[in-house]
Amino acid sequence: RNGIYPLMNFAVSRPHALPRALSQPQEDPQKAKTPTPEPFDVETRKVVQMQCNMELNEDKSQWHLLLRLSRVQELHELYPSDNSKDLATELVHYGFIHEDDCEKLASFLESAFHKHRSQA
């Protein structure tokens, strides 16, 4: 739901201060309403492989965390009319791959299609 890098830039190096003119007056705690939490999608795919890498940045002030999670997912049912270029373009459209990788993925899918169709 949150894209390919949901944990990226989750911390701010310094807190943002609001100008006093924009601050809201304090409410009476008894009158304050509890906000209704926003509904969210529950992830149904299971993690099958995990990889973690941590390294300090150049000035040794922050850690960078790279976390790769591979999940089981059935992405698409193929029909005889489907082709590799259209599938790769669809993945770009929905934000699963970068536009620069479209041709590379289409070529990879085409070779996979050719291999499996020749075995059938």
Specify the number of helices: 2
Lateral arrangement of strands in the main beta sheet: 1-2
Work out the radius of gyration.
Answer: 23 Å
What kind of sheet is the major sheet? 2 strands, antiparallel
Which structural class best describes the helix and strand composition?
Answer: alpha+beta
Query: Would you identify the regions where 5 or more consecutive residues have pLDDT less than 50?
Result: none
Question: What is the tally of beta strands?
Answer: 2
How would you sum up the global shape?
Answer: extended
State the share of residues found in helices, binned by percent: 10-25%
Calculate the terminal CA-CA distance, rounded to whole Å. 36 Å
Percent strand? 15-25%
The average pLDDT value, as a whole number, equals 76
The ordered H/E elements are EEHH
Q: Could you explain the architecture of this structure?
A:
It comes from Orthonyx spaldingii. Residues 16-42 are annotated as: Disordered. This is NRBP2 protein. It is a single chain. The protein is an alpha+beta fold and 120 residues long. The chain is 23% helix and 16% strand. The chain has a domain at 47-118. Strands 1-2 form a two-stranded antiparallel sheet. A hairpin with a 6-residue loop joins strand 1 (47-56) and strand 2. Helix 1 packs across helix 2 (102-119). The radius of gyration is 23 Å and the shape is extended.
Primary descriptors:
120 residues, alpha+beta, two-stranded antiparallel ribbon, 2 strands
